[in-house]
Amino acid sequence: MTIDLFIKTEAQRNWLHKLAQLQQKIEATAQQHDEEAIFPLENIELLKSIGYTKATLPKEYGGDGFNIYDALLLQETTSKFDGSTGLITAWTLMNVGELFENRYWEPSTLHKFGEAVAGGAIINKAVSEYAMGSPLRGGRPGTTAKRQGDKWIINGRKNYTTGSHALDYFLTLVWVEEDAHTAFFLIPKTAKGVSIEETWDVVSMKSTGSHDLVLENVEVDAEALVEIPSYSTGFKLNSWLLLIPATYLGIAQAARDYAVHFANTHSPNSIEGTIAQLPNVQTLIGEIELSLLNARFALYGAAEACLDPNRQQLANNAINAAKYIVTNAAVDVVDKAMRVVGAKSLQRTNPLQRYYRDVRAGLHNPPMDDITIKNLAFTALQLNK
């Protein structure tokens, strides 16, 4: 199963063709980047060179104006080439898409930021903190902002800052002590007191550079306070979060492609022909195809519901469910791909072991599985009182 069934427009096809020109270059370095936990800066620059990081920026600012459905196709494809590169770029596509779709900021601030994105700037939210736990569970940030004249002084530490080495801006959730509320500050990487501490030492998504952002007496102007959200978690459920499961779906597709190629070419001397003729192999590949088909209908179906004014108010559970279905399907697909390939899939030079490690990271991206199940149950029980 591939994404071809879900392509709708010529603009989408053109973008997928542009991405295909970069596939070899990005795939060629993925193994080394993973082995040595090298940040894929050259991949980010390649994608910038074709305008990828501004695809969800409105056309009026110089972007492509892609909506969430369009962006899912791009994100899944890029992540198939390299999961870490995909996850880094997902956050910029997501944050830019969400900001401009909902117009959270003052028009002048959005305009200035839009110009920066059009020029190649990339962004991620800096929300998570070790003591805070998952933002969606309601913890209060320990990072603080204090007013000092017409400036703000910010201190704190954020973890899981994916793409840290390439980011130009950190959209940082802080606690404003004097007013007792959370706020988002747009902090440029060039601000004095901003540094990255390399703490990302994990077994999956090793190249994402999800290090700690350290803020020590960072002084910013008053306009750096770009948003006082009506929620405290730093994450508002919206369709753009679907770009994260799309990342893991792309990795699962890469595993599927490897397993299918292996089945069609591997010919042990114990049989005539290839293992593709064996019933157990056909069963595994059939189950892989079914999982991918289910995942895509959940993902792209949720995106379509979010884009329909008549259905978008009902789409919250669909967003949560799509993330649950897709990330768990990705784990299942890679596992079955490894069963097709056998012990060879465990070799460090084999990409399947990397896919296996990488897709598991999706289980720890918000929203968490237990929250999704709880919300689905709550909705069903409330509707049937």
Written account of the structure:
The protein has 385 residues and is α+β, with helices and mostly antiparallel strands. Helix content is 47%, strand content 14%. The protein is built from eleven helices and eight strands. Strands 1, 2, 3, 4, 5, 6, 7 and 8 form an eight-stranded mixed sheet that branches. Helix 4 packs antiparallel against helix 5, helix 7 packs parallel to helix 9 and helix 9 runs antiparallel to helix 10. The two termini are 40 Å apart.
Outline the low-pLDDT stretches: none
How does the major sheet shape up? 8 strands, mixed
Overall shape: it is globular
Total DSSP helices: 11
Total beta-strand segments: 8
Give helix and strand order, one letter per element, not per position.
HHHHHHEEEEEEEEHHHHH
Question: Residue share in helices?
Answer: 40-55%
DSSP strand content: 5-15%
Q: Distance between termini?
A: 40 Å
Q: Output mean pLDDT.
A: 95
Structural class category: alpha+beta
Q: Measured on Cα atoms, how large is the radius of gyration?
A: 21 Å
Annotation keywords:
385 residues; alpha+beta; 8-stranded mixed beta sheet; 11 helices
Secondary-structure map with pairings?
Layout: H1 10-20, H2 23-36, H3 41-49, H4 68-81, H5 83-102, H6 107-118, E1 123-126, E2 144-148, E3 151-161, E4 169-176, E5 181-188, E6 194-197, E7 211-221, E8 225-227, H7 243-265, H8 279-307, H9 316-341, H10 351-359, H11 369-383
Parallel strand pairs: 1-4, 2-4
Antiparallel strand pairs: 2-3, 3-7, 4-5, 5-8, 6-7
Helix pairs in contact: 1-4, 4-5, 4-7, 5-7, 7-8, 7-9, 7-10, 8-9, 9-10, 9-11
